[in-house]
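hey
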């Protein structure tokens, strides 16, 4: 039996970092949004009970630190299953871009192996196990539009954001998440929290994306060191994007457009300007479509 599970990327429509926590993580407030850009996790049964991982991208680690392998071993440990699997990852989501590719792959592995091994796991258990794998992993078990609290693993599902087309630029810049956290000014981010979160939650809960104005605290930390990212953000804005922002701690920059035609025209404009990096057109994916593909996609 072979299963093919899509592992879709996310954007952060809003990201505020509050303060360091005693457990070594940071308290955040973020709005996640799934898009249709996706890796593919291919799962095949292995009769010998072993786990084997491979990837079509040489930069992806294949050892025990790989999140897909961690997800598989965690599922084995928690359920007592003795079956194995061959896991093949086909990458499309750029790495170190703030798009959650590794976390999405881990979530897809959990869901796919649950089917492959014929396991009946409660959704609450999957969310708990996902949080042990990474702060973003629980979101990729939910999808759509969601408010992320705590370190990002505490989720409040929100009404799906209105359909938007997305132009994504992934420049040849690698931003370390740990480095970006170390550059934050927590006095400024905490002040932003007090002013922004209550109205933000109301706007999103009511589905009024036209009134939504997100921020990303990492921009103030990252842009001075990598001015190319600020320049790309300005170029996307000049193409008529409704909103532009860096996703996660970077380095991808995105712009939102109401129509596919406007998004395509912006892509052509950026190509004429020889904007460095990979340019991707994608779109928002709502929760129903996301979960339908995640939980029912196999051959």
């Amino acid at each position: 039996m072979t299963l093919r599970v899509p592992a879709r990327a996310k954007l952060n429509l809003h990201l505020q970092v509050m303060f360091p926590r005693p457990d070594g993580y940071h308290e955040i407030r973020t709005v996640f949004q799934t898009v249709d850009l996706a890796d593919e996790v291919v799962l095949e049964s292995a009769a010998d009970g072993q786990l084997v991982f491979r990837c079509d991208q040489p930069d992806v680690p294949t050892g025990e630190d790989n999140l897909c392998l961690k997800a598989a071993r965690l599922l084995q440990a928690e359920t007592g299953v003795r079956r194995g699997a061959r896991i093949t990852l086909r990458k499309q989501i750029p790495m170190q871009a703030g798009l959650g590719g590794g976390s999405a792959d881990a979530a897809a592995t959990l869901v796919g192996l649950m089917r492959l091994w014929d396991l009946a796991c409660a959704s609450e258990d999957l969310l708990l196990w996902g949080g042990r794998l990474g702060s973003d992993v629980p979101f990729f078990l939910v999808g759509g539009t969601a408010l992320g609290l705590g370190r990002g693993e505490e989720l409040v599902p929100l009404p799906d954001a209105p359909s938007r087309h997305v132009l994504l630029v992934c420049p040849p810049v690698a931003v370390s998440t740990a480095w970006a956290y170390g550059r934050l000014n927590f006095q400024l981010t905490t002040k932003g929290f007090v002013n922004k979160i209550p109205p933000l939650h109301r706007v999103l809960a009511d589905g009024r994306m036209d009134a939504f104005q997100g921020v990303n605290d990492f921009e103030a930390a990252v842009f001075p060191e990598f001015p190319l990212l600020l320049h790309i953000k300005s170029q996307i804005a000049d193409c008529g994007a409704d909103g532009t922002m860096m996703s996660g701690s970077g380095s991808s920059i995105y712009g939102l457009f109401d129509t596919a035609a406007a998004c395509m025209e912006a892509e052509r404009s950026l190509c004429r300007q020889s904007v460095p990096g990979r340019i991707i057109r994608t779109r928002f994916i709502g929760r129903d479509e996301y979960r339908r593909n995640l939980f029912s996609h196999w051959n």
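The mean pLDDT is 90. The chain is about 35% helix and 30% strand.
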